[in-house]
Design a protein that fits this description.
Rossmann fold
Length: 194
């Protein structure tokens, strides 16, 4: 049976929120990570150790996987961020090593739901900077979007995360396409006509 679970992934300002909002407006079930009961607890967990912080986000991903498994609907479920983001950001921030994350993943990968497809959105650096300037809501780890060293490291850790978690995925560059075109591409990929 083909999975009806899909993921939108990618670093900040690549279009995940914009695409997710449009998908929801077209009737697609969209969930954002972290999910309930984890939602809204990030400020508290940021004071925890890096490993505890990582476990918090992976626990939210595991809860999401459980909810997806219990879903009896044949409609698509699209999650904004999943295990790749948790891995990439925690290694890029320097709190965990690739070896530590790899050990965790090897021990617990079977606990997570494999999506039918993970769609990795990307955009050029100048376009991402333009989008950051337009954002009205606070950005995760505010200030890091302008840190070129961190952004390079984060891109590298996403590559690492994609090799570690080698589930079906593809890339869509959102740099020059209008959001509606990207949304139509995603709808075509998930098989939901909205």
């Amino acid at each position: 049976m083909q999975s009806n679970f899909f993921v939108l992934e990618g670093i900040d300002a690549t279009g995940k929120s914009t695409v997710a909002k449009s998908l929801a407006q077209r009737g697609v079930r969209v969930v954002e990570s972290p999910i309930r009961p984890f939602m809204g607890k990030q400020a508290v967990i940021e004071r925890a150790t890096p490993f505890a912080n990582f476990l918090f986000f992976m626990a939210s991903n595991a809860q999401l996987a459980s909810l997806v498994r219990e879903n009896t609907s044949t409609d698509a479920i699209v999650c904004v961020r999943y295990v790749w983001s948790s891995i990439a950001y925690h290694v890029a921030l320097g709190g965990l090593t690739r070896e530590e994350v790899s050990s965790f993943w090897k021990a617990f990968a079977h606990k997570f739901q494999i999506p039918g497809l993970a769609i990795f959105l990307s955009a050029s650096d100048p376009e991402r900077q333009r989008r950051f300037a337009l954002k009205s809501e606070p950005v995760f780890q505010s200030g890091l979007q302008n840190n070129e060293v961190f952004q390079r490291r984060l891109k590298g850790e996403y590559s690492f995360a994609r090799k570690l978690v080698s589930w079906p995925s593809l890339d869509i560059d959102t740099t020059s396409e209008p959001p509606e075109v990207i949304v139509d591409q995603v709808l075509g990929l998930i098989g939901n006509r909205g």
